[in-house]
Amino acid sequence: QVQLVESGGGLVQPGGSLRLSCAASGSIFSINAMGWYRQAPGKQRELVAHITSGGIINYADSVKGRFTISRDNAKNTVYLQMNSLKPEDTAVYYCNCKVKIKIVTPLVDYWGQGTQVTVSS
């Protein structure tokens, strides 16, 4: 029904950059917020960045100054520009979207399939 398609992951060297994108489609009445989470092997999934439809943004402390989240509300798409990548950034990155299918329904979370980001020499 609601699909989140992620792209942009890959293998980069330390100090390199990647740009992730996530496009939401399907039966969506409105999107309240979109964000990026990541999960490294053996670790809990953690918030990376989050942006509301109104443009309010927050970042994890570990990525502040290096990552930038942005969105195109008209395209239901969120981006994550990742610069100065570190080996510690290696993880599967998941797109998250909080949506209302209909105006009378509550917000529901949807998740992308995940995209692998590997930072290694």
| Helix content range | under 10%
**How many whole angstroms does the radius of gyration measure?**
14 Å
Determine the number of helices (DSSP H or I, runs of at least 4 residues). 0
Q: How far apart are the first and last residues' alpha carbons, in Å?
A: 40 Å
| Biggest pleated sheet | 7 strands, mixed
Tally of extended strands?
11
Order of helices and strands: EEEEEEEEEEE
Give start-end ranges of low-pLDDT stretches: none
Which structural category do the helix and sheet elements fall into?
Answer: mainly beta
Assign an overall shape.
elongated
Mean pLDDT: 95
β-sheet strand percentage: over 45%
Fill in the keyword field for this structure:
121 residues, mainly beta, 7-stranded mixed beta sheet, 4-stranded antiparallel beta sheet, 11 strands, elongated
Overall description:
Strands 2, 4, 5, 6, 9, 10 and 11 form a 7-stranded mixed β-sheet that branches. Strands 1-3-8-7 form a 4-stranded antiparallel β-sheet, with no helix packed on it. It has 121 residues and is mainly beta. The mean pLDDT is 95. It is built from no helices and 11 strands.
